[in-house]
Structure formats: C-alpha cells, structure tokens
Write a structure and sequence with these properties.
Blueprint lengths: L2 H22 L3 H14 L10 H15 L6 E4 L9 E6 L6 E7 L18 E3 L2 E3 L7 H16 L7 E7 L10 H8 L1 H4 L3 E4 L4 E3 L5 E10 L1 E10 L3 E2 L8 H13 L9 H14 L1 H12 L4 H8 L2 H7 L2 E9 L5 E2 L2 E10 L5 H12 L5 E5 L12 H14 L5 E6 L5 H6 L4 E3 L4 E2 L12 E3 H19 L2
Parallel strand pairs: 3-6, 3-7, 7-17, 8-18, 9-16
Antiparallel strand pairs: 1-2, 2-6, 4-5, 5-19, 8-9, 10-14, 10-15, 11-13, 12-14
Helix pairs in contact: 2-4, 3-4, 4-15, 8-9, 9-10, 13-15
C-alpha cells in the first residue's frame, strides 16, 4: 500500500472512530470519577471476606470533602450487623418532591484462584473494566456518589430534592438488607416520589452497535417453595412399593412438564411490540403475534424456546436442590425438593402454592412456602418519568428505540415498590447479552459504557431535579 493510500485509510479510520475516542477520553472530570469508581470497586464488600461498612465510610469521606454535613450525609449501621453499613445523603430542593438514587454496594463472593485477575483490583484491559462489582452494582453506585459530589460543588439548587442511598444486603440473604432496614427504621432518608435503581441498561449487537435503550418497570418476586414427602421408612433389605424418593421423583417429573400460563403486563406487551422489528425473523413475528394476542399458543411456544423470553411471559418454578434419606441402608423417611420460583407481580405466595399442588397432583406431596415474600404492582411509565429519559436518549443515541422491560430477576426495588415508592431501572450502560457475567468469573463492563452511563444519569437526574 502506498503512503498516500495508507494516509487516506488512516484518515477514514480516525473519522469513523472519533465518536468512540471521544466517549472514552479521560478528561480531568472523568479521571476524578474513575478514581472514586476504582476506590469503591477495590474495597471488598462481599459477605465472606468483605465489609460494606468499610466501603460506605470511604464514600462518606468524598461527601464530607464536598461539603455535606452530618445532617445531610450519614452512615447507618444496623444493630448487630457491624459490617452491613449503608450510606444515605440528601441534596435539599425547594419543593416537597424528591427522587431517590439507589445502588447496592455489596457484591457476590469471588475467589482469587478462580479468576484470571485479582477480583478486587480494577483492571482496564481491551476496552473493559474487570473486577467483582465492576458492573453489579458499583458502577451505578460510583456514578451516583460522584454526581452528588459534583452537584454540591457546583452549588446546584434543585427544585426536587435528590436523595442517595448506597446500601448493603442486596446480593445475599445472610446480611441485613439495607433498603428494608432503612425503610423500617429511617424512612425519611428514603422517602421519595420515585427511585432510580439498577435493572436495565442498553442492548448492543455482537459488533458493539447500540440497538435499544431499556428501562425497567417491574420485576418478578423470588419465592422459595419446597415439595416434601414423608414415609415410615424401614430396612432397605425389605423394600416396599411406597418410597418417599420415588414419590417425590414422580412429582418432580410432572412439574417438569408443567407451564404456568402466559400473562403479559403493559410493560412486557410493549417490550415484545418494540423488540419485534429488532429481533426480526421467526422470533420477531412471534413477538408481534403474542403482543396482539397473549393467548396465541403457537407464538408462545416459539418464544418459550428462549429462556429469557419465556421468563418474562409467565411465572416459573424450577427444582434447584434435593435432599432425601437418612442412611444408605434404610428406606427414606423423608424427601424434600427446593424450588426457586420467580413469580409475576400480582400473585400471592398462596396462589403459587395452590398452583403447584395442582401441578404435582399428589396429596402425599406437601407444598410449603419458604420465607414468604409479598408481591407488588409494577410502576407506571408516566410522562414525568419518560420525558427526561426520552430527551436524553434522543440526544445521546439518536434514533435508538426505548424499550420498557420487566426483569425476571430481583432487585431491592421490590421493597421500595411495596413501600409506595415507584422504582425504575435505568443506567444507560450498554452491553451485549450476557457479556458482563455479573456474579460469575471475570465480571466486566465496557469502559465506554460506564462513561456513557455516567453522562446519561447525570443528564436525566438533573432533568428530574428541575421538575
């Protein structure tokens, strides 16, 4: 290739890549944010080896340095749980309205010997940030903390009060859940007209092209159930037809063939309608069909082949653990299967219990509720919520559709929704399906996505604050 041709190709490449380069440029402002993000990520806040309290105390220092007083920013530690601390802060507005910025700072355990890199050292490599919590959920936590610092330093005067809660206990049940604790014991710090939370980002193609911006409105409720069979047992040298393990196995086989009915909410209907042209092909046609008629069995069967689509169409229950017998030479006296159920909003645990009892079709199999969790109603996507989102998305990602979604997983939004605080998942942090590997090995987030998410949340929060 000649020098002139080489120069021409390089010029084209620079022109094509200028948007990416600009998005990732480490300006002094971004460098300060990156420092906060790095500090937070590198504080181990996992349940086995870490401390949420250490993490929130470190973040409190940044708020104090920005001018937040004891009245406006505090670390709150639940009684009897010294490592489960939470950080709350407020930037007071001129009206009685408020928005809550919520992010959890606890993370799932990570073992160094399993990871390619130290999970509690932030590594920037090949356009990604790698570390435990780099995506879930310290990305949003750092963005919100950094935003509260900058707003104070700017002497920003909001009409709508801005509240911040960086909480512990979202990821595991063996810690005090910070959102629940604060709502029960320190409600004024949490009180808001609505909240912004994790739960949705944006969709990229495999090549990294943005194709959809997601906003989460609603989530399933995780309800654990058990199937139990009891039996007199006896000596294994004298087997009898009635066997607790066999009976439980039969119930599980019937359950494996059972599907809960399709139920579309306004959010999931809109999801399928707007995703149809993006998905295209057979899936796209099925999405259009089921959005038009949720009773379309053929469309439902096509979409159910994809576990992600199936999970948002219906309640699901899956066996995750089995425990049976008490000795290798004895007939089993007891057999128990644990079910992980993800329940659509609007259904009670008792309704689920009755559905499962009918599905297993055996009066000798007892269906029991474990750790009863109440459902909630999905929040409405009002103009108050969507207006700022639409304006910001149109400016940052012109032409990209906004697609509402319901997450089949669970976030701390369930506590807020139950407390009457509508909670919406939005981050503006785009990714390809499954690439972050949150909770898994080598968790990561795109560098560009983190910075773009920061810009999005900055703009949308300021817009809400002016209302």
């Amino acid at each position: 290739m000649g020098d002139q041709m080489r120069a021409f190709v390089i010029a084209l490449a620079i022109t094509a890549f200028v948007g990416t380069a600009t998005a990732q440029e480490l300006t002094p402002d971004r460098a300060r944010f990156r420092s906060i993000y790095e500090e937070l990520v590198e504080i181990d806040s996992s349940p086995t080896t870490g401390s949420c309290t250490r993490a929130v105390n470190a973040m409190l220092v940044h708020l104090r340095n920005a001018g937040y007083s004891e009245r406006d920013a505090q670390v709150i530690i639940p009684d009897g749980a010294p490592e489960d601390g939470n950080l709350v802060a407020v930037l007071r507005g001129s009206s009685s309205r408020a928005v809550l910025l919520l992010a959890h700072i606890d993370v799932v355990d990570a073992r160094r010997e399993d990871w390619e890199r130290d999970p509690f050292t932030l590594v920037e490599e090949n356009g990604y940030f790698y570390a435990r919590g780099s995506a879930d959920d310290k990305a949003m936590a750092a963005v919100f903390l950094d935003l509260m610092v900058r707003l104070r330093q700017e002497n920003f005067r909001p009409r709508r009060t801005i509240r911040l809660a960086l909480t512990c206990g979202e990821e595991t049940s063996n810690r005090v859940n910070g959102v629940d604790y604060l709502l029960q014991n320190h409600r004024p710090w949490m009180q808001a007209d609505f909240a912004i939370n994790e739960g949705a980002g944006g969709m990229l193609t495999a090549e990294g092209r943005p194709i959809a911006f997601n906003i989460q409105a609603g989530e399933k409720i995780h309800q654990v159930m058990t199937l139990t069979v009891t039996n007199p047992g006896g000596h294994s040298s004298r087997p009898v037809p009635e066997n607790a393990i066999y009976r439980l196995s039969g119930a599980l086989e019937r359950l494996s063939q059972f599907q809960f009915p399709v139920e579309l909410t306004p959010v999931t209907r809109a999801f399928f309608e707007r995703m149809a042209p993006i998905a295209g092909g057979t899936n796209g046609e099925a999405m259009t069909a089921i959005a038009r008629d949720p009773n379309d069995a053929e469309a439902a069967a096509i979409l159910a082949r994809d576990p992600s689509f199936n999970a948002i169409m219906r309640t699901t229950c899956v066996a995750t653990q089995v425990e049976a017998g008490h000795a290798p030479n004895a007939l089993p006296q007891r057999a128990v299967a644990t079910l992980s159920c993800r329940v659509l909003q609007g259904h009670t645990p008792e309704e689920l219990q009755a559905d499962l009892q009918r599905a297993v079709s055996d009066p000798q199999v007892t269906v029991e509720i474990v750790r009863r969790r109440d459902g909630s109603s999905p929040p409405r996507l009002t103009r108050q919520i969507m207006g700022p989102v639409e304006r910001t998305v149109a400016r940052m990602w012109p032409g990209i559709p906004i697609i509402p979604m319901m997450t089949p997983g669970a976030t701390d939004g369930r506590y807020l929704n139950n407390a009457g605080i509508p909670t919406y998942g939005m981050s503006g942090m785009f990714s390809s399906p499954g690439e972050s590997n949150a909770h898994g090995l080598n968790e990561k987030i795109r560098v560009r996505s983190l910075y773009e998410g920061r810009d999005f949340l900055d703009a949308v929060v300021r817009d809400y604050a002016r209302q």
